[in-house]
Amino acid sequence: MATIPLPQALLRPLAVPQRLLLGPGPSNVPPRILAAGSQQLLGHMHPEMLQVMDEIKAGIQYAFQTRNRLTLAVSGTGHCAMEAALLNLLERGDTVLVAINGIWGQRAADIAGRLGTLRAPGCRGAAGTWPAPEVLIHPPAFFPQGLARHKPSVLFITHGESSTGVLQPLEGLGELCHRHGCLLLVDAVASLGGAPILMDQQEIDVLYSGSQKVLSAPPGSAPISFSERAREKMLRRKTKPPSFYLDMGCLANYWGCDDKPRMYHHTAPINSFFSLREGLAMLAEMGLESSWERHRANCTLLCQGLRELGLELFVKEEAVRLPTITTVRVPKGYAWQEITAFLMKEHGLEIAGGLGPSVGKVLRIGLMGYNSTKDNVDRVLGALRDALQRCRRSRL
Ligand code: GLV
């Protein structure tokens, strides 16, 4: 006999309030993508499903600007793609140089450590300190020095740091890595579709992103692609990758990226893939250049409005400002939690505080994909004006 009582909460209808998600992601999902995700299921090996996966692959190749055959979506969030990239590329004893310019570099270094790799220090700020924004952009000299000194087999770097709002320039980095016999691994979870990134032209060996930011699909599937150099390194592994679920050899086969018949590996999140397919289709219909321009223009409008409200942008230089997530310093005399709570309660609108090293220092406002509109710029500025009037605390 069942002895655990019925969970009363489950006997009530699911309650999901309407919110405008202008934090660092997830973004609101447009009706077309919601409709795609609510279609009836297919089996994960049905030919029609495999066709949807082929379309996703073509969409990722367009979004990443790559011809890489080993291009697919992992069944998980962008974080899962980070783990997949690191655990397939690295083996115990490999050296990895992690360029830490915010939380994602910290995470990559943590994962690499769990894999038993030797981590060359890549942090530019002393441990526990929070460097000034200009220090968060790795200057050109950092890379040749790090590569020559540590001889890593992989360099990890985040293109769009959602914790700081910094866009890391990548020009020349792929070529430099290759001259040093190193692979370039780039996190573009927060930047893909919002700022130019050209995988093949920039000689990036592994690139990944997420579904829930500019692609405006629900979290749960993550585009990833591997260059031929990266594929060859994985083929030379002496040991199997330490995860079956994320083993790129098995995933490549399931996604039709090798010459063998496609085999069952795991049950794919079918509806997440439907949504991702539509997110990629919408990006393709808009065109990458238009999408980059839309994010740039709305970010510029937002920054102008934030300055007019008397707020201080965290990233001063426009060239290295992430167009998808804007950071402002928490204004003096305010508690950031009160501002975010006020916006949620009074305006049904999410913006976020800092993350990892930026906690307590900044507020983060995301305008991504479907949410990157002039109307949303006006809404968040109006709501912030209200918050600045209502949340001031004289004792701070
Ligand atoms: C998640 O990506 C975040 O930046 O909060």
Automatic annotation (TrEMBL):
Catalytic reaction annotation: glyoxylate + L-alanine = glycine + pyruvate; L-serine + pyruvate = 3-hydroxypyruvate + L-alanine
Pfam families named in the record: Aminotran_5
Gene: AGXT
Matching CDD domains: AGAT_like
Domain (Aminotransferase class V): residue spans on this chain: 22-380
Species in which this protein is naturally found: Anas platyrhynchos platyrhynchos (Northern mallard)
Signal peptide: none
Entry keywords, A to Z: Aminotransferase, Pyridoxal phosphate, Transferase
Cofactor section: pyridoxal 5'-phosphate
Protein's UniProt name: Alanine--glyoxylate aminotransferase
Family from the record: Belongs to the class-V pyridoxal-phosphate-dependent aminotransferase family.
Presence of the UniProt keyword Thylakoid in the record: no
PANTHER family xrefs: ALANINE--GLYOXYLATE AMINOTRANSFERASE, AMINOTRANSFERASE CLASS V
SUPFAM superfamilies named in the record: PLP-dependent transferases
InterPro entries assigned to the protein according to its UniProt record, in alphabetical order: Aminotrans_V_dom, Aminotrans_V_PyrdxlP_BS, PyrdxlP-dep_Trfase, PyrdxlP-dep_Trfase_major, PyrdxlP-dep_Trfase_small, SP_NH2Trfase/AEP_transaminase
Segments crossing the lipid bilayer: none
GO terms for biological process, alphabetical: glycine biosynthetic process, by transamination of glyoxylate; glyoxylate catabolic process; L-alanine catabolic process; L-cysteine catabolic process; L-serine metabolic process
Molecular function GO terms recorded: alanine-glyoxylate transaminase activity; amino acid binding; L-serine-pyruvate transaminase activity; protein homodimerization activity; pyridoxal phosphate binding
Residue numbers of N6-(pyridoxal phosphate)lysine PTMs: K213
An annotated GO cellular component: peroxisomal matrix
